Amino acid sequence: MDTIGILGKEALELLRGMVAIPSVSFHEAGVCSYISDVLSGRGISHHLEKNNIVALCRHFSPEKKTLMLNAHTDTVPGNGEYSFDPYKPDYGKVREIFGKGKDEIVCGLGSNDDGGSVVSLCAAFQYFYEKDLPFNIVLVLSCEEERSGPDGMTWIWEHYNDIPGLGYARKPDWAIIGEPTGMKAATSERGLLVLDGEAEGVSGHAARGEGVNALYIALDDIAALRGHRFRKISPVMGEVRLSVTQIEAGTAHNVIPDKCRFTVDIRPTEMYDNREILEELQGICRSRLTARNLRNRSSATSPDSALLHCIGKLGIETYSSPTTSDWLRVGCDAVKMGPGESSRSHKKDEYILAEEITGGINTYISFIGTLAEYIKTTFIK
User: Fold this and answer.
1) Residues 341, 309, 369: CA angle, nearest 5 degrees
2) HSE-up of 22 (CA within 13 Å, CB side)?
3) Structural contact between residues 81 and 91, judged by C-beta atoms closer than 8 angstroms
């Protein structure tokens, strides 16, 4: 079996082991320990940092630029709709559903999002681990991505130089963010801004027509939000997207509600920062709007990026992603690219195909090799 074949076989074994260990956000210790043991068995030195795994290539030098390979190990909670055990799938039943045997498919919670990217990036990192490239490679398997937790990539980026071996290193210059994209390259992704709206009225008896109905105030504001259009349109991502997704009011059928709460889900583009959006929407609403988080910005690959050169050289299809990732938590040039399909994420009977993982490993290795050649010919005389 050739090197890629061996890496692919090992990746499938690693992924099946990962799926068997529940790793819902904030509970990744078990899967982190498992991956750590596997990496140690492969001779890959690494560090455990708050349920994150960080590994440096053998020839790491603070004087070189750095490429970060990132994927996340946490999952969303499972649901009761699975046709099989989401942690220990019955592959006889899997064959009935998908027509694929155990050697052709890996099923279970987290297999597609984001296990496929984790194991494929681990394989690519292992391939280059001993090679002396014109840049460093840092592998970061982060936790808490699905819940935007404080101890995942947010912590890694803020405390990068506190990690052993990185004390005098500058932060990564480029990053590949592994997410299920069908190995297309997302060169931009929308941000996320969640607003909590609260309308205030005056309570009263419905039969006597008393009070000021907070629900009506909220409905007027929701109508204004639905009809609002942001003036600046992104040439890559189009318009800012806005949806009201939750509403809550009232205590009894005969009591005029004095409060009504609603939630607004907004997907920004690079044309606005999140505070600008909050201020613009507050200007058209009587309800008080409060942002849960202003940090989840939109992201885009730099127009003159070395990563874009590699994408073009390899003929990789590009697109703009509607979903967020750890990309928004890193402050360097990046692309989002990984095996599997986003449409399978957060749904029952999650799966990824063995051929997708092998293809992902191949593409990652080709991409890193192409970047190495570009850096040599462009920056090293």
Assistant:
1) 75
2) 7
3) no
39: enclosing H helix or E strand: helix 29-41
Please, are residues 241 and 230 in contact by the beta-carbon 8 Å criterion? no
Residues for the chain: how many in total?
381
89 token code pair: 């799938």
Report which residue type is found at 278.
L
Residue-wise pLDDT for 326-367, tens only, equals: 999 999 999 999 999 999 999 999 999 999 999 999 999 999
Bridge partners, 266 (sequence order): 193, 242
Lookup: tokens for 125: 């990192």
pLDDT, tens digit (0-9, with 9 covering 90-100), for 161-178: 999 999 989 999 999 999
Q: How far is CA 187 from CA 132, 140, 313, 370, in A?
A: 28, 20, 15, 17
Which regions of the chain are under pLDDT 50?
381
Q: List the structure tokens of 376.
A: 């040599």
pLDDT of residue 380: 59
For residues 151 and 143, what is the distance between their CA atoms, to the nearest angstrom? 7
* pLDDT reported for residue 281: 98
- Verdict on whether the full-model pTM lies above 0.85: yes
DSSP track, 193-228: EEEEEEEE-B-EEGGGT-SB-HHHHHHHHHHHHHH-
Q: CB burial class (10 A; 0-12, 13-18, 19+) of residue 19?
A: buried
> Between helices 354-379 and 116-128, what is the axis angle to 10°?
40
Could you give the CA distance from residue 13 to residue 113 in angstroms, rounded to a whole number? 17
| CA distance linking residue 32 with residue 52, whole number of Å | 7
Q: Which long-range contacts (CB under 8 A, 24 or more apart) does 97-101 make?
A: 97/349, 98/351, 100/353
Look at residue 381 in the predicted model and tell me its pLDDT: 47
pLDDT of the residue at 146: 96
The pLDDT, as a whole number, for residue 338 is: 98
* In contact, 138 and 124? CB cutoff 8 Å: no
DSSP summary character for residue 290: E
